[in-house]
Design a protein that fits this description.
Layout lengths: L1 H7 L3 H28 L3 E7 L17 H8 L2 E7 L5 H10 L3 H4 L20 H7 L3 E6 L13 E4 L5 H5 L2 H13 L7 E6 L53 H30 L6 E7 L14 H4 E7 L10 E7 L3 H9 L23 H5 L9 E5 L10 E6 L3 E6 L11 H4 L2 H11 L10 H5 L4 E5 L17 H17 L10 E6 L2 E6 L9
Parallel strand pairs: 1-5, 1-6, 2-8, 3-4, 3-5
Antiparallel strand pairs: 2-7, 6-7, 9-10, 10-11, 11-12, 13-14
Helix pairs in contact: 8-9, 9-14
The structure holds 2-acetamido-2-deoxy-beta-D-glucopyranose (4 copies).
Length: about 525
């Protein structure tokens, strides 16, 4: 009342001056607040599962027990439509840490061993940008990207100089490393800690004898060692919940039961990490993000552009935005949104730079997800874009995809139809796939949504209506009724490829050339002759 009376006693000009003064003071103090927040009380904990899917209560799986993930999700905004832009470990992590799609950051396939892929040396990664802005960075677990000059953290305990089993799956060891990172943390400096679990990745290919998902590693039985903090949960094959894209066979059920046991280690690991953050007094100023690099390693999953390959769990807990805790949102999110989200959190601008040519400045295609934690989801959701080149070096199968309005999805298979879809080593050795091969060879029913030959041989264009056909079984691209949508999606995908300097822009029917007006596609006239 008093303020109101005073205000009315002042003339118009004074009101104007006072308003301006108020605005200036506000601007100054807001700026001050932002920089204070940068110095105190702004940290990020990023936890990424390895081939982790939706096997948890919060996403409707009531069989696989994940109390720690569910408790975190209950305090987070949970995204039901989050995807990776590329369904392969190293490319996904490079895209996550650079904010740029695979074909732009240059990491086209797996990083380790013979595969040997690295991003361009000129890429500016999230840990680099953060370090330049005074944020301390740490990584514990699976790094799996390079070169080291691009992806380096202030604190590193990764497979580069540790056993991946220890830093990626031994949750007691992970707990102690998180404790070490926090104990060496300068109180006044903000941090980003990236905990990259190796669970629940498959195991038979790299560590045979520990169970299909390394589900026996550290379980305390003779020969398997002991992880003091892990209480393994065992599942019966008949009790697991099979996703629609996994065949309903005894072999696949046994496979999924192993996966669930490994998820109990991941889940309890998440609980331990959160506990360390709490004990260090950081819960109230740390943004916590949980996701996975790509879909689970089952048919239709990892290495595919079908939904089971792209869709990932994602939940974000902010200590400051409490209104939407425990809510589920169907806003379209991508792992390419993580860099903009973290930069937004720290109030840091994305640097202006180019990777290959000055005429090709990089820009972040993703968006900050923080506004969704505060407000509603009405903000127009943009299109999703995906870009995949290969997984293992022998698995060259480039694909591009677009999803518009959560309804129509277009996949461009650049190698189709001549080349069969490739299978990776550790999925090949899975009980699920070996059984599918056996059944196919012996003419037995697969109990699956497709025949193996349809899975191998794909059309160049695949278009799906995700609302009417969420399992992506009916290719609409030749249907007259969908002609316009097909052309529109194709055009938008081409424009996106162009704006992100995609070297595959003209593949497979043209060669990418350059004239003074810019890049163009010179035709190859290589359409398959009829009857070939
Ligand atoms: C691994 O290397 C990092 C530095 O890159 C070092 O801080 C860490 O102590 C090393 N870990 C081991 C187990 O040697
Ligand atoms: C902590 O960080 C601040 C600012 O980054 C710096 O001035 C100070 O010297 C650091 N303290 C220690 C003990 O490293
Ligand atoms: C896990 O790590 C702890 C702590 O470093 C160690 O005592 C334990 O033996 C490890 N377990 C396995 C299975 O390696
Ligand atoms: C596949 O069949 C072969 C021989 O028929 C058998 O030895 C093998 O165990 C089978 N593998 C699976 C995974 O069923």
């Amino acid at each position: 009342m008093m303020m109101y009376g005073l205000w009315h006693g002042i003339n118009h000009f004074s009101k104007f001056v006072l308003t301006m003064l108020f605005l200036i003071i506000c601007l100054l103090s807001c700026r001050h607040e932002a920089s204070a927040a940068l110095l105190h009380g702004r940290n990020v904990l990023l936890m990424i599962a390895d081939d982790g899917g939706f096997e948890m209560g919060v996403y409707g799986n009531n069989r696989c027990q994940t109390p720690h993930l569910d408790a975190l999700a209950a305090q987070s905004l949970v995204f039901s439509r989050a995807r990776t832009s590329v369904s392969s470990c190293s490319p996904s992590r490079a895209a996550l840490l650079s904010g740029l799609p695979s074909h732009e950051n240059g990491l086209y396939g797996l990083h380790h061993d013979v595969h040997h892929f690295n991003s361009f040396e000129t890429v500016r990664s999230l840990p680099m940008i953060l370090r330049e802005n005074g944020v301390r960075t740490g990584i514990i677990g699976k790094k799996h990207v390079g070169p080291r000059s691009v992806y380096s953290f202030d604190y590193e305990q990764t497979e580069e100089n540790n056993s991946i089993m220890q830093v990626g799956r031994n949750i007691t060891r992970i707990k102690l490393l998180v404790r070490e990172f926090l104990a060496t943390q300068n109180e006044t400096q903000p941090f980003l800690l990236y905990v990259a679990f190796h669970d629940p990745h498959r195991c038979d290919h790299s560590n045979p004898g520990y169970g299909h998902f390394c589900d026996k590693f550290g379980n305390g039985e003779p020969g398997f060692g002991h992880i003091p903090d892990w209480k393994p949960i065992q599942y019966k094959p008949e009790d697991v919940l099979l996703p629609y894209f996994v065949p309903d066979t005894p072999a696949a059920r046994e496979d999924v039961a192993s996966q669930y046991t490994t998820i109990s280690r991941l889940d309890q690991g998440v609980g331990l990490v959160l506990d360390e953050i709490r004990k260090a007094g950081k819960t109230e100023d740390t943004l916590i993000i949980y996701s996975s690099d790509n879909g689970i390693s089952f048919p239709y999953g990892r290495t595919n552009m079908y939904e089971p390959g792209l869709a990932v769990p994602l939940f974000i807990k902010s200590p400051y935005d409490l209104t939407r805790r425990g809510e589920l949102t169907d806003v379209q999110a991508s792992l390419l949104d993580i860099v903009p989200t973290v930069l937004d959190w720290f109030d840091i601008d994305y640097p202006k730079y180019h990777i290959l040519k000055p005429s090709q400045p990089t820009s972040l295609g993703g968006k900050s997800l923080l506004p969704f934690l505060r407000g509603d989801d009405k903000a127009e959701s943009d299109a999703f874009f995906g870009s995949h080149a290969m997984h293992e070096v022998t698995m060259n199968y480039p694909m591009r995809s677009i999803i518009q309005g959560e309804r129509y999805k277009l996949i461009h298979n650049l190698n189709a139809p001549g080349t069969p879809f490739p299978i990776d080593q550790d999925f090949y050795l899975s009980p699920t796939f070996l059984d599918m091969l056996n059944r196919t060879l012996n003419g037995l029913p697969l109990h699956w949504i497709k025949e193996l030959s349809d899975y191998y041989f794909r059309e160049e264009w695949e278009m799906f209506d995700l609302k009417e056909d969420p399992k992506e079984c009916v290719n609409l691209h030749r249907k007259k009724k969908y002609r316009e949508i097909f052309v529109e999606l194709k055009e938008k995908l081409f424009m996106w490829q162009k704006s992100t300097y995609d070297p595959w822009l003209c593949a497979p029917h043209g060669v990418l050339l350059e004239n003074p007006q810019g890049p163009f596609c010179a035709p190859l006239h290589n359409r398959k002759p009829r009857g070939y």
